[in-house]
Each structure stands twice: as structure tokens, then as C-alpha cells.
Design a protein that fits this description.
Blueprint (H helix, E strand, L loop, with lengths): L1 H8 L3 H5 L2 H11 L4 H11 L3 H5 L4 H9 L2 H5 L20 H14 L1 H6 L3 H12 L2 E2 L26 E2 L4 H16 L1 H6 L1 H17 L1 H16 L10 H5 L2 H13 L2 H12 L3 H6 L4 H10 L3 H11 L3 H6 L3 H14 L3 H11 L12 H7 L3 H4 L15 H6 L7 H11 L5 H9 L2 H9 L4 H9 L5 H8 L6 H5 L2 H13 L2 H12 L2 H6 L3 H8 L1 H6 L1 H23 L1
Antiparallel strand pairs: 1-2
Helix pairs in contact: 3-6, 6-10, 8-11, 10-13, 11-13, 11-14, 13-14, 13-16, 16-19, 19-22, 22-27, 24-27, 27-30, 28-31, 30-33, 33-36
């Protein structure tokens, strides 16, 4: 169907591509298109490349065509021979069309990179030439991504790689030299900077030497500007919205030795001011994301650790979460950073307050704020009141608070955090599980190698009597499924028995009926012997698979 429709609209390809509805239709069709129809549409648009690439609708058609390459390059030779032979094929192959597009873009590189819509084409072209599709750059034709949504750790964005001809990598190398010719523009212009950021990520995976050349060019240019008061000239650009985004990417792709040299030359002695700055705190987070050596982490930790409470007070918890993640990843300073968190959230002294750390970390609120206490300045902190804590509903769990708890649970000794989790009441744990962010804390409890079976069981036993509430919740049901997957036969019997008392309620609930099916609740209620045998068989298979994977 796609082949026939594209054949009919080929003559009107330009008009359709630059029409909102027509553009959306072409994007959908190209996603299913065989090779030859796609090449014919591409050929029809090529004489008007500049117009189409800089059109708000047309550029997405070109992007969609480029993004078919991973699919079409995998096709065996002659796969399209069954297509209508009476029709003349396109005069150029797909590889030639891509290389031709890259040549035209190269000849007017600054124009395409600096155009609001044309830059989308350049960024997609760079990914295709490098055989690396970035998660953060996935095309969303119905609406562009917000810039803030892209500000995530590169470790969370796994690129999709595919094989490309050597000619593609050669052309990618050519385009990388275009950035060097006008490096000042790509550092200071907001739109053009996005193209350089994508180039750094793609080159990091496929041509690391060229990535290092671009990084050096960026750092050398910024370092050559006029010095800021009392520090490196780079500090001025860390506080600028456009260049700071570029520096974030540079930090993530630098080799460890270059990263350590950059830290000593430009960052050391300035971390406190960077952490408290509304823009510069983001490049600092990326620096922490990139740390892999104990030596560099020790330098950063020594300078940043005394300022954790001030950083939280400024509303920049991302810096604290990034530091905790670095301690988890490198495996050092874990006990120290946990003690500093206790002090920052005012639950270090008296020691009885430490049991309240999970609600405080999850909500990112200090002890007095969370429990609404009025303490005079200089007065001794009051002891923790268990009755007050157990009767209070859990406050809203923040995304960064959830991430903080997840990292802490992966520390080599998460005992204090687990003790706090065990002190929560059943309803409080249910609130945590039903939270979109808080539900992921249970993922860490269930999967962290640092959490022993005994510790895990101590936390989860509090949920007894709350399974129906979990099952009838969007996020709680996912937590219950995860608990069920790792539960022994005895625990599964307890869960099924409790759910069986509310079988009708579960069946009628949009989330509960999935849990009932997963648990095989009908079989449990009507044929308990057969259910037990079935569960034993599943457990044996799981153990066998685990032993194979371990080997």
C-alpha cells in the first residue's frame, strides 16, 4: 500500500512535504516504504533541498527519510526485485543520495546549522552518517522536545548503533572539520550549538580522535577569552545558557585524563560558586556524571562536600544526587556522603532522627520542615517522635528524591536507609509504591546486590495487608508484580490468599485484573493443588535459568 500511494504522490512530493497534513502523511508512509519508492520521493525533493530543509513541515519529511536507513541498509541485496519491474528505478542509489545530501549541507554548512529547522536535518544527518541514533535526538514529528527534557545524564540515553558504509564515516569526518573552521559560531550561537553537541556524541562513539579534536578546539577557544575575576575565563561560559549546554556535552565525552586536566585547570576552587549558580550547576552535574577515577572524585568531594546543605537550600538538588551517584559508581566516600546528607537534612543528631531519613530524602525536605516543627535557633534538636512519624502521611515523593534513595540503596552498606524503610508503616509504604517516582525505590530494594534477603524481607513484610491497594494502582501494581517475580512459594501463597479475599474487586479494576491474571488467582481459588504445582514448576525453571546465566 505504501509503495502504491508513494508512486501516486511522487509528482506532488514538494507540495505535500510543505503542507502540515501532507507532511505527517508522508512521514508515516516513509516508515513503511520499500527502498525504491523512498529514493524516488527523495529525488523529487532534492532540487528544492534548501527550501524543504528550512520549512517547518518539510524538514521532518527529510528526517523521516534519513531515519529509514538503519532498516533499509539491513535489507539483503535484491530484496526489492519483486517490485514492479516496468517502472524505472531512481537514477541514484540510497547511498549516493545520502552522500549527495551531505555534500550539499557541507557546502553551505553554517546556513543549515544556523537555521531553526535546517539544524534538525544536520543533526539527523550526522547521526545517520555515524551509524549512531541518539535517544535524546529521536524525532517527534508532532511536536519538538522541550530543551529542559533533554538535560539528562548521557548514561541514561543509550544510542542505537548500526552498520554504515565506510563512505559515510569519511563524509562524517569531512563535516567534523567544518565545525573547526567556525568554532566561535558553534559555541556562541544557540541553534548552531545543538549541531556541535550532536556531532560530539556521534564522533565519541565512531571517531573518538576527531571528537577529541573538537573538544580541544572548544576548550582552547573558551580559555583564550578574557579572564573572569578571580578564575579561569571558562567560568564565564559555564554561566551562559548556550555555551554551558555545549560544555556539558564536552565534559561527558572527554577521556578521563583530559577530564582531570580540565578540572585542575578550570574547575578546581570554584565548585561552591558553580553549584549555587542557576545555570552553572548543570555543567557541574555533568562533570560528576563523567567522573570515573577515585583520585578525581576525592578532589571534587573534598571541595564540594562542605557545601551540600547550601546547595540544597539554593534549590539545586541535582548536584547532590550527581555527587551521590558518583560515590556509588566509583565506590568511595559512601559513608562520608551519607553522613553529610544526614547533616544537611538535619537528621544526624540526635541519632534517633536517622530513622526518618527516607521520608526526608524522598521529599527533599529538612527534618523541621517535613514535620512542621518550630525550633528556636541555637536550641538542642528534639528527639524523634515515633508516634508522630507513624501517624503522618508520607509527603509527595520527588523525582530527584527517588533517585537519591535508589543510589543510596546501591551503596556497599545501605543498612541505615533500609532501617528507615523498615520503620515506615504499611500505608506509608503503599504511598511510596503508588508514586510514579517512589515506585522505582522498590526496584532498587529488589535488585540491589547490597540488600540481603533478610533486609529485603524485613522491608516488604510491612506491605502485608496492603496487597489489594497495591494491585489496584497503576504504579503499585507494577511494584507488586516485581515483588511477585522474586517471591518464594510460601510468600506467593500469602500474597495470593490475601488477593483472593477481594477477587471480584480485583477483576473489576483496570490494574487489578492484570495482577489477578499474573498471580493465576482463579486457579488458586478453585484448584489450589494445581496452582501450587504450577508455581513450583515456574520456580524450578527460574532457578535453572539463573544458574545458566551465572555460569
Amino acid at each position: 500500500m505504501a509503495r502504491n500511494i508513494l508512486k501516486e504522490v511522487e509528482a506532488q512530493a514538494l507540495a505535500l512535504a510543505t503542507n502540515r497534513t501532507g507532511s505527517e502523511m508522508l512521514q508515516e508512509l516513509l516508515g513503511f516504504s520499500p527502498l525504491k519508492p523512498l529514493c524516488r520521493v527523495w529525488t523529487a525533493l532534492r532540487p528544492n533541498l534548501r527550501f524543504v530543509a528550512c520549512h517547518r513541515c518539510g524538514v521532518h519529511v527529510l528526517q523521516s527519510a534519513l531515519l529509514q536507513l538503519p532498516r533499509l541498509l539491513r535489507r539483503p541485496a535484491g530484496a526489492d526485485e519483486e517490485e514492479e519491474e516496468e517502472e524505472d528505478g531512481p537514477s541514484q542509489t540510497l547511498e549516493e543520495l545520502v552522500l549527495g545530501l551531505a555534500a550539499e549541507v557541507r557546502d553551505d554548512f553554517l546556513f543549515f546549522c544556523g537555521d531553526t529547522h535546517g539544524s534538525f536535518l544536520v543533526r539527523t544527518l550526522l547521526q545517520v552518517l555515524g551509524g549512531t541514533l541518539l535517544e535524546s535526538e529521536r524525532v517527534k514529528p508532532r511536536g519538538s522536545q522541550s530543551s529542559e527534557s533533554q538535560r539528562t545524564s548521557a548514561r541514561e540515553c543509550k544510542p542505537t548503533e548500526f552498520e554504515v558504509p565506510k563512505t559515510f564515516l569519511n563524509r562524517l569526518q569531512d563535516l567534523s572539520t567544518c565545525f573547526l573552521k567556525d568554532i566561535a559560531v558553534f559555541i556562541t550561537d544557540k541553534i548552531s550549538s545543538f549541531c556541535l553537541q550532536v556531532a560530539l556524541q556521534v564522533l565519541h562513539h565512531k571517531l573518538p580522535q576527531h571528537c577529541a579534536r573538537l573538544c580541544d578546539a572548544v576548550i582552547d577557544y573558551l580559555s583564550s577569552r578574557s579572564s573572569s575575576a578571580g578564575g579561569s575565563p571558562l567560568l564565564l561560559f559555564l554561566r551562559d545558557q548556550t555555551s554551558s549546554r555545549l560544555l556539558e556535552q564536552v565534559l561527558l565525552v572527554l577521556e578521563p585524563e583530559r577530564l582531570q586536566r580540565l578540572f585542575k585547570d578550570h574547575f578546581q576552587g570554584q565548585l561552591d560558586s558553580l553549584a549555587e549558580h542557576p545555570i552553572a550547576n548543570f555543567p557541574l552535574q555533568r562533570l560528576l556524571d563523567a567522573v570515573t577515577s577515585p583520585e578525581l572524585l576525592s578532589l571534587v568531594f573534598e571541595e564540594l562536600s562542605p557545601a551540600l546543605e547550601a546547595v540544597l537550600a539554593r534549590g539545586h538538588p541535582g548536584v547532590v544526587v550527581a555527587l551521590v551517584e558518583a560515590c556509588r559508581r566509583v565506590g568511595t566516600h559512601q559513608a562520608q556522603v551519607l553522613q553529610l546528607l544526614f547533616e544537611a537534612f538535619h537528621c544526624a543528631e540526635p541519632p534517633s532522627r536517622q530513622v526518618a531519613c527516607v521520608p526526608l530524602f524522598a521529599s527533599l525536605l529538612a527534618y523541621e520542615v517535613y514535620y512542621e516543627l518550630m525550633e528556636e535557633e541555637g536550641a538542642e534538636p528534639a528527639e524523634h517522635q515515633v508516634e508522630m512519624a507513624t501517624t503522618r502521611a508520607l509527603r509527595e515523593v520527588t523525582v530527584l528524591g527517588s533517585l537519591l534513595l535508589q543510589h543510596l540503596l546501591y551503596f556497599s552498606n545501605p543498612g541505615l536507609v533500609l532501617r528507615s524503610l523498615s520503620a515506615l508503616t504499611g500505608p506509608q509504604l503503599v504511598t511510596l509504591a503508588q508514586s510514579p517516582a517512589g515506585s522505582h525505590v522498590f526496584d532498587a530494594i529488589l535488585t540491589s546486590p547490597s540488600v540481603t534477603h533478610k533486609q529485603r524481607r524485613r522491608v516488604l513484610k510491612t506491605l502485608k495487608g496492603q496487597y489489594v491497594a497495591l494491585a489496584c494502582s497503576r504504579h503499585g501494581s507494577r511494584v507488586l508484580d516485581a515483588i511477585w517475580s522474586g517471591a518464594a512459594l510460601g510468600a506467593r501463597k500469602e500474597i495470593a490468599a490475601e488477593l483472593g479475599e477481594k477477587n471480584q474487586e480485583l477483576i473489576q479494576d483496570p490494574f487489578g485484573h492484570h495482577v489477578a491474571r499474573n498471580v493465576a488467582l482463579t486457579t488458586f481459588l478453585k484448584r489450589p493443588g494445581a496452582w501450587e504445582q504450577q508455581q513450583s514448576t515456574v520456580a524450578k525453571r527460574r532457578r535453572a535459568l539463573s544458574s545458566i546465566l551465572e555460569d
